[in-house]
């Protein structure tokens, strides 16, 4: 067999193994995202340790991108003001339940769509909790001098900008060109925002329909060489069933065929200037915050459509904005779905989220699960070693280069499971959220 034939066979085997892993993980996370609907359920009292992370969800956007599976709705100022009042009420209830988070992440939607309401909310948060870090998502059109100053005043030290691509052709397909400007304009805004915060992060997507190696390489060049951005979060395209169907009509068919090639290109192109802080986040210097990585996997979520994970139970707030405001006013909690995880599923979740940050302290998890970690996850841990996904030394398990892409697949399927649950919940309130039913044949 010639060299080319051997290489081709090897690549086919790798792709087959990637697809098999993706199918398996899809079934795992689909099962884990089967929430029990009902409620409302009260937020449990904080334990003595309590989670360090508070996630705040602001669902309002000035325009809705076809690829996005997050809980979002078109901005209406009156509705947004009502929402923010309820949101501050829920945050007060979190404090009353005894929680003391020190890390705050605000996502959406576009949290900066109504800056004055956002800042009033963050002033409250800083008055209630011992906040050390605040990270906020925004869009390129909000990178303005007056927004910078306002966010700095309320303690924001990390800003994550939804860029997705600098390719004007792809920006038009995503419906972002008219809303947020050309790739050149977005790059200029990012350059001018440099140095305003401790960390400026760009959220980028790889494996978009129609995205070429040249387009992706140009994105890397702009971020690395022209802007010198602090940090880049490179997400694989992750769609729910419903979003994937809608996206085909605006962006084209979605395929996983080139996902690994895209990831390898990014790693090779950015590796000389940036280091991994998670499997898909690259930072120019050490010590920068990555919103997905925390010392503890538990966290609290507030806002419509937010999730919490506390003591082995996943909780989800109502996706109805009207019901959210009413429940907070009446009961102080908007939790309407939950999913208790078995001990094995808890250990698996901990392993997934910890290795997402590249390194897992096996001894720490052994203590957490009272010496039962290997018994609970023996098949998964054995498979990681047999496939060369991890290197273990001195109680530390670290992802290898091969394992890093396997964890891209893992996290893609994890978030796809969450997105499909979001689809289910949003479909129940689609008229309220301005969601139109898809054309026949979807």
Detailed description of the structure:
- With 442 residues, this protein is of the alpha/beta class.
- The protein has a domain at 41-283: Alpha-Beta Horseshoe (pyruvate-formate lyase- activating enzyme), CATH 3.80.30.20.
- The protein has 16 helices and 18 strands.
- The strands form four sheets. The chain has a nine-stranded mixed beta sheet.
- Strand 5 (103-108), helix 3 and strand 6 (133-138) form a beta-alpha-beta unit.
Which architecture of one domain does the CATH hierarchy give at level 2?
Alpha-Beta Horseshoe
Secondary structure class reads: alpha/beta
Radius of gyration: 21 Å
Give the class-level CATH name of one domain.
Alpha Beta
CATH superfamily of one domain: tm_1862 like domain
- Tertiary shape: globular
What is the fold named in CATH at topology level of one domain? pyruvate-formate lyase- activating enzyme
Total beta-strand segments: 18
Task: Report the total helices.
Answer: 16
Oligomeric state of the chains in view: single chain
Helix content: 40-55%
Contiguous low-pLDDT stretches (5 residues minimum) are: 436-442
- Strand composition percent: 15-25%
Strand arrangement within the widest β-sheet reads: 10-11-9-8-7-6-5-2-12
Give average pLDDT, whole number: 89
Distance between the termini: 45 Å
């Amino acid at each position: 067999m010639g060299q080319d034939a051997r290489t081709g066979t090897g690549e086919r085997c790798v792709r087959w193994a990637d697809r098999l892993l993706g199918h398996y993980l899809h079934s795992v996370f689909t099962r884990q995202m089967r929430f029990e609907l009902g409620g409302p359920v009260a937020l449990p009292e904080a334990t003595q340790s309590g989670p360090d992370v508070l996630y705040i969800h602001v669902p309002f956007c000035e325009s809705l991108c076809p690829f996005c599976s997050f809980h979002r709705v078109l901005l209406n100022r009156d509705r947004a003001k009502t929402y923010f009042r309820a949101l501050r009420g829920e945050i007060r209830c979190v404090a009353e339940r005894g929680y003391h988070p020190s890390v705050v992440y605000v996502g959406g939607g576009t949290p900066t769509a109504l800056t004055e309401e956002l800042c009033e909310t963050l002033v409250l948060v800083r008055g209630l909790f011992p906040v050390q870090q605040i990270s906020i998502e925004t869009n390129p059109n909000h990178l303005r001098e007056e927004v910078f100053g306002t966010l700095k005043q309320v303690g924001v030290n990390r800003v994550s900008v939804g860029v997705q691509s600098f390719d004007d052709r792809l920006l038009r397909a995503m419906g972002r060109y008219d809303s947020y400007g050309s790739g050149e304009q977005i790059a200029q805004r990012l350059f001018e925002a440099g140095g305003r915060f401790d960390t400026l992060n760009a959220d980028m997507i790889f494996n978009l329909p129609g995205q070429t190696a040249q387009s992706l390489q140009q994105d890397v060049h702009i971020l690395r060489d022209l802007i010198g951005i602090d940090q880049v979060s490179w997400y694989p395209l992750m769609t729910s069933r419903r979003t994937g169907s809608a996206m085909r009509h605006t962006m084209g068919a979605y395929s996983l065929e080139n996902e690994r090639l895209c990831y390898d290109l990014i790693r090779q192109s950015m590796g000389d200037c940036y280091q991994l802080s998670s499997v898909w986040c690259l930072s120019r210097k050490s010590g920068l915050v990555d919103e997905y990585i925390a010392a503890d996997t538990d966290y609290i979520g507030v806002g419509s459509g937010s999730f919490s994970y506390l003591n082995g139970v996943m909780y989800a707030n109502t996706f109805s904005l009207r019901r959210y405001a009413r429940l907070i006013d009446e009961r102080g909690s908007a939790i309407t779905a939950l999913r208790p995880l078995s001990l094995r599923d808890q250990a698996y979740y901990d392993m997934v989220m910890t290795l997402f940050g590249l390194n897992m302290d096996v001894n720490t998890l052994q203590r957490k699960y009272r010496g039962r970690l290997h018994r609970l996850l023996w098949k998964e841990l054995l498979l990681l070693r047999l496939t060369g996904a991890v290197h273990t030394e001195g109680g530390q398990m670290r992802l290898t280069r091969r394992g890093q892409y396997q964890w891209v697949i893992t996290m893609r399927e994890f978030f796809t499971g969450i997105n499909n649950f979001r689809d289910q919940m949003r479909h129940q309130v689609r008229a309220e959220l301005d969601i139109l039913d898809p054309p026949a044949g979807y």
